[in-house]
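=== RUN LOG ===
request id: a7f3
mode: sequence -> structure
chains: 1
length: 586
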Amino acid sequence: MIGCQFSAIRLAPTAKAADERRRVKEVRMRWMAVVLAGLAVLAAPAGATDPASPESYAPIDLQRLSDWTRALASDELQGRAPGTEGETRTIAYLTEQFRALGLEPGGENGGWTQRVPLVHTQVRSPASFTVSSHGEALTLQSPRDIYVNTARETQNVRIADAPMVFVGYGITAPERSWDDFGDVDLSGKIAVFLVNDPDFEAAEGDPVAGRFGGRAMTYYGRWTYKFEEAARRGAIGALVVHETEGAGYGWNTVQAPAGENYSVVLAEGARPPVLLQGWIQREIAADLLRRAGQDFEAVKRQARSGSFRPIDLGATFSTDLPVTVERVESHNVIARLPGARRPNETIMLAGHWDAYGIGPADARGDTIRNGAHDDAVGIAGVLEIARHFAAGPRPDRTLLFAAWTGEERGLLGSEYFAANPIYPAETMVASLALDTLQSAGAARDVILIGQGQSSLEDLMARFAREQGRTVTPDAQPQRGLFYRADHFPFAKRGVPVLLLMALGGGADLVNGGRAAGDRWVSEFTANCYHQPCDEWRPDWDLRGAAQDVSLAYRIARHLATTAEWPQWRDGSEFRAVRETSADRRR
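=== RESULT ===
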């Protein structure tokens, strides 16, 4: 078109011709400037995209994202607790949404769901706890001093004068030349653990620092590992000492379940969990150590040295707790879009549908913990990704869209699926999880949880650049977020994984920068995490959430339309598991 315009111009052989030539030259230069500008746009690095523009989160529909979140976080779903009327309504809603999008059922027996059998326990109030320490009886108040529940299928937690043993970080890791237990016998005792792992507070120059990955928490730092290790050693109970920085959340989050617990029904012959599990406040643990002639901070330093040995606290623990117990049938919701060329190769996109249901009233009198950020907006993102794939050309590989149950109670639904797979882990290309996305606006970066694990991080960086964003590693790896979301059961079985979550340090927001992002994370974590105030609001700015949803979509689309198999990095603890099934992926 440009060439045609120029060829149509005729020059007169007069003084007027000079003006005409100058005019033609000016026109030509203006057109050339336009062409060069267009070429510059085409050739510009993807990072030139304005992160605040719609292109940074295209093709995600902000209104749909908000509407789905609002519906899932509505009071009508009663906080989406497993095994309740809230679950029944949630499962019906999600099933209808997936069906309306044109997806196929991806669950058991040609249906939309996978049954997840759970044990639901509730410690009934009032709860009393007595610690006898060096001739003095101490009464611990719940939930001020101690928070407990039980994962046992029992109607009573009765413990009489069980000796209490402080076990430091409570880690057995032969591959790291670490053993906190020695030859101590924990049978029938209460094990008291430090939160996190030895590197969390390691001092510079500490000769053993680095065995646990620096400040980035390993799985040994998770409270789930500590409860499991206590059970393996025959303990009757396990208490983790709460410290906000080490745990990654305050005491209000610890006590949010209000004595309630869900656990998967154990297989016949499986080792039972400890009878009593929970947390105690730091001040209580420090007082017990002081009575035993020990200083809490000094003991913590020793526990980081590699030479720690368990400390008999010279105290006994007693309680008699009535428990309401029932078996409930919960469900994962799974939809699928079959691949056209390689249907047996799957890509998982998922979030968790459950929240904390109905609990104690907050200062406003609200009892419903709606879980809007955690994780209604993540499920809304999964639905929006599913909508785009269903409306487009059929992908080469099969796409799975899942909404898990029981994440808040220990990744129960995703772990159950991974242990009882409908689709094998060996031919699962990747698992992408969306959990707790932010509502504070567009961001210049995306937070990477679990840096250095797999080549999925390269895809994250590539497609983030196309959004005009950079990748920022989790600023608080000591919180162990990599081990606290529904991608983790798949990682344990060798599937490369990626978690998109807003809690790994504040994003660099377009409006307000990193300070504003950090403020959003700290305020949400301190005030609304697992609380009634985690509600949908009409003034949310979901552009940042949409950026992350769009990023997950772009990564999934790339994997769904290529033959690429993401790989674990050298040094990842999950690489060896994946390599055992390499022949299945040729």
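=== NOTES ===
Residues 1-47 have pLDDT under 50 and may be disordered.
The radius of gyration is 28 Å.
=== END ===
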